[in-house]
Amino acid sequence: MVVVSLLSLLRAACAEQFTSFTRSTDTISLLGNVTFANQATYEATVLLTSTFYVTGESEIWDSWQRAVQDTHFRIEDGGTLSAYAFPVNFPNEFSAGALVTGVWYDLAYVYDGSQERLYVDGDLLASRPGSGNIGIGPGNIMTVGAIFRDGGIDPSFQGDIKSLRVSNIARYSGNSYTPTFGDFTSDPSTLLLYDFDKVPTGSTIISDLSGHGHTGTAGTGFTGATSPTFGVVLLPGDANLDDKVDFSDLVILAQHYGQPGDWTDGNFNGDPTVDFADLVILAQHYGQSTNASQVGPASTAVPEPFSMPSLLLLAGGLLRWRRPSPRGITGPTNRMVSCILDPGPAANPNGAASTVSRNCST
Ligand SMILES: [Ca+2]
Ligand SMILES: [Ca+2]
Question: Could you tell me the residue ranges of all domains in the chain?
Fold first, then answer.
């Protein structure tokens, strides 16, 4: 019980501020390279908002040069944790587990020259024998998030990251260790270190706290690269990341309804499509806001949980609004949405359309 309580506290301490990767093209381009011999540790504190990747895999960290270096830390489709220290166990990267969304994880990959190990929250997830030195390429590309490699874009993982550390030693051994669940610290074995929770909102540059100068620049590195969001707590339903769930988010969801999408398209539940389940999430958080200094879930000011008739009303209105009217989507937004979300005692499934038409569409 003590252990459980401690873990709960550590998890709670993570819920402050971090960096959110909400698009498959979100990336931070890192200067330089890391150099290993026959030991390595990759570790990150992350919370996933999706484990669905149409490409089969997504990147947390990657340093790569074709046929020379392939050192990476990934989440594969379905939530499998994966790491590689090419050419160790070539051609098979090391994958195990089934991570889920909405949970802070302390993830680690360790290679000690004779064995590879994956840990989740300090518990050994899997191990396998391995040997040899790790390949290093002088012409590498290194990123947090998406990377352009092998002729295409490997997408970013989807979620939040609090800290990332890469080291040239095997930091953990055995079946378990006490996880950090937060910011890692630098020491002489640290090759790169980022505390994403220390980066101010709106930043585009992140410093390497290891002192090795692997400065990161967000939103660069390949055509179509986008920046993750620094210093913003992801609020379910907040598609445009402006720290509140309101009509603007509703419009975004409507514009992508029925299509594939990521968080900034209104796909909040990590499945492939912007659909009714996302609408429910948005509705449940409509009117809420939070701020980066606030720990825990968003305030619950308004509204009450919605009835299914209200949600159907909302869905119907959204689909109508997918085609901009001659006046555009700039009407009496708050009134309109409030009306739809709370159509009053007269509303019922059969009378839904007339309620919207009479009271809410002007
Ligand atoms: Ca918003
Ligand atoms: Ca969805």
Answer: 2-230, 247-360
What is the distance, to the nearest Å, from the Cα of residue 42 to the centroid of all Cα atoms in its chain?
18
Query: Could you list which residues have their CB under 5 Å from ion ligand 2?
Result: 267, 269, 271, 278
Beta-carbon neighbours within 5 Å of ion ligand 1? 238, 240, 242, 249
- Distance (angstroms) between ligand 2 centre and the Cα of 186 equals 39
pLDDT tens per residue, range 227-253 = 999 987 788 999 998 889 999 999 999
pLDDT value, residue 311: 63
Task: Considering every ligand atom shown, identify the ligand nearest to the alpha carbon of residue 279 and give its number.
Answer: 2
Tell me the HSE value of 315 on the side-chain side, using a 13 A CA sphere: 18
Tell how far the Cα of 76 is from the centroid of ligand 1, in angstroms. Answer: 29
Q: What is the model's pLDDT at position 307?
A: 55
Topology annotation, domain 2-230: Jelly Rolls (2.60.120)
What global pTM score does this model have?
Answer: 0.76
Tell me how far the alpha carbon of residue 72 lies from the centroid of ligand 2, in angstroms: 28
Distance 109 CA to ligand 1 centre (A): 36
Of the listed ligands, the closest to the CA of 257 is: 2
For every residue of 244-267, DSSP letters joined together read B-SHHHHHHHHHHTTSB--GGGT-
270 Ramachandran zone, left/alpha/beta (phi>0; psi -120 to 50): left
Distance 145 CA to ligand 2 centre (A): 21
Name the residue type at position 174: G
Ligand nearest the Cα of residue 49 is: 2
Digit-coded pLDDT (tens) for 28-79: 999 999 999 999 999 999 999 999 999 999 999 999 999 999 999 999 999 9
Q: Is the peptide bond before 129 cis (omega within 30 degrees of 0)?
A: no
**Which residues in the chain come in under a pLDDT of 50?**
1-15, 292-305, 324-362
